[in-house]
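I have been asked to look over a protein record a colleague put together. This is what I was given:
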Amino acid sequence: MWCGLTGDMNPVHLDREYCKTTRFKDIIVPGIYVLGFVSATLSKLAIGGIYASQDIRFMQPVYLDDTITATSTIIDKLEAKHMLKFLTHCVNQKGETVMDGEALLFIQRTRSYPSAIDHVLEKG
């Protein structure tokens, strides 16, 4: 589905027979799709936060039957810029790191979520 939405028709994401001839030996999930799990963790930690940047390192391939667990941890507060810096990390069901990196989020204060945002900024 992701490939159809984005137009990413790389055969490593679509063609099992082709993949058998590659080092992966089977279809792999697009890395940017895996990054979506990180985005979900960030949206739970900082409601209304806006991505400013993400540095990503893809460490291992993710296969169609893998179970991915994503975590994001606040590592710095840039209060003057209303930003938070996060360590982002994804592991598969074997505990292998498949992706890691760092993200910067712009934290908005809104009428709808002022206490949630302030709570994130106040965490030690």
About this structure: The chain has one domain: 2-122. The mean pLDDT is 85. Residues 89 and 105 are 16 Å apart (CA to CA).
